[in-house]
Amino acid sequence: MPFPLNFEDLLGHWESYLVSLAIGIAFGVVLEIAGFGDSRRLAAQFYLGDMTVLKVMFTGIVVAMVLVFAASAVGLLDFNLVWVNPTYLWPGIVGGLIMGVGFIIGGFCPGTSLVSAATGRLDGLFFAIGAFFGIFLFGETVGSFEDFWYSSYEGRYIIPEFLNISTGATVVILVLFALVAFAFAEQMERIFGGADLKKAPKWRYGAAGTLLAGAVVVMFIGQPNTEDRWNTIKDDKAPVLAKRDVQIQAGEVLALMRDDRINLILLDVRDEADFNLFHLLDAVNISADEIPDHLKEFRAKSANTVFMVIGNDEKAATEVWKTMVSESVPNVYVLEGGINNWITTFADEEFKTTSLIESHAHDTLAYTFASALGSRYAMANPNPDVFQLEYTSKVKLQAARGGKSGGCG
Amino acid sequence: MVVQGSIKKWVRVPARTAIGVKRQARAYVNPYLAGILLGVVLFSSFFLTGNGLGASGGMNRILVWGQDQLVPDHVDRTAYLLEMAGGDTNPMDSWVVFVMLGVIVGGFTSGWLNGRFKIETNRGPHVSVKMRWMLAFIGGAFMGYGARMARGCTSGQALSGGAVLSVGSWAFMFAVFAGGYALAYFVRRLWH
Lengths: 409, 192
Fold this sequence. Notes:
The complex is a heterodimer.
Chain A: H1 7-11, H2 17-33, H3 39-43, H4 52-73, E1 87-88, H5 89-106, H6 110-118, H7 122-141, H8 146-149, E2 153-155, H9 159-163, H10 167-193, H11 203-221, H12 226-242, E3 247-248, H13 250-257, E4 263-268, H14 272-277, E5 284-285, H15 295-299, E6 305-310, H16 315-326, E7 332-335, H17 338-346, H18 349-355
Parallel strand pairs in A: 3-7, 4-5, 4-6, 6-7
Antiparallel strand pairs in A: 1-2
Helix pairs in contact in A: 4-10, 4-11, 6-7, 10-11, 12-16
Chain B: H1 2-12, H2 31-49, H3 56-70, H4 72-77, H5 79-85, H6 95-113, H7 129-149, H8 154-163, H9 167-184
């Protein structure tokens, strides 16, 4: 899944914004040729005689939607890395209502007012100045209602999850919804605007059919699951495992545990019984089969987060590594030799001789513990000054790829 | 087709157009065609960069940049502003600022090439020019305030979030239309 690209790596930090500038120029051209520089044309939407706003917006949304999920279905685009506006339901609805009021009084939305001002319209210019003033007021007042502004947070929450249907089915339903809305809009234009529908171009039927056919194809291909995702990246990632580039030695993990610049997550994927007997200090216990429920939360962690997957040996941990890497979680590593090797490295000689289970099965605990003391052992948080371990440093923070902040971040 | 047409027009008419001089402006394109082009632009943005489109976010950051020049201490004490411009953080260091600048460049270029650049004030028949400017300012203030509360405007929330199926973005979109339609009847004299 080569897209989205990381332009910061390809072009450099500020240079990467040239891509955004080009996209913005194309966006500005489209808004202008649609007639969105003229406030009367925008306001007309609310008097039903001219439904240009609805037609352009919904067409744009459904066309982009079908293309995004088609690209994702064929494995070109990693949808996990596409920014989805997080849902803050009520602040969004209240903000939307306020914007509706602003729209009908002022005749623009922020983007269209810029196009309007750029084409010489003074009302567009005054609207843009007003928008700056409104933004300024918000920045100065949001402190007094911060609880509301952060309320009803659902994170990255998409309609397929809300309706509990497949992404492809959602795409088809929304295309149908848009087509019905267009038919309704054309009737409104006929009734309230006196439009002659016979003069409307015939190609729009062909375009509607093509769009719907595309949506149906997207539904039948389906979106890739974790296994499909692994198959597309296997050729790149399997050699990394084989060369042991991501299996991190105990000494480096110990150093990372004391590195304040790194948000280290010690992800203990063993079952709860083993975890309770012994685990590393501050490790979190998420068993291997529960990992898929936490992927979204893992992807949302800060850019300096490093995941260290910990098993008894390496087998289960490696499987979890594959799942997490396939699902676009950055900076995932495996503790070399797992907990068993950790104990061998850091336990005192007495413990090692008395507690070793001579013939333990692979990926089970190699030592017995008299009681479930968890991380209350010295070896759960060894003193690095006592153990002067040599290691090859392998952890490298990967620059985040894909969408970083909200549409209006 | 559209682009080619624009260039022909550009070659035919004098490159320099006197501001405010009336001349034949090309008609706007069919709404569905504009919508398809909009969809392709929006998809390209997601496909290449992983981000959608945006406008008010860029305006926000330019404003905060200005505030940071004038009253840096105030910015460092206000949580909301701190995030964008606290200490050495440069609020202009964001893709959305460049999309916004692009919108201005693209809008101007297209308007000029198509003979639609004109210094004027678009208004309803019963509204004076000064009244229209005042209403535009007030409407803009509502819009700016609401857009920040909703964490995005029509471009950043409705278009971008809508295309990638965000639940919040669809709820937001219906709220914008609901707000507009609810008030439209009462302010009809502004536009008719």
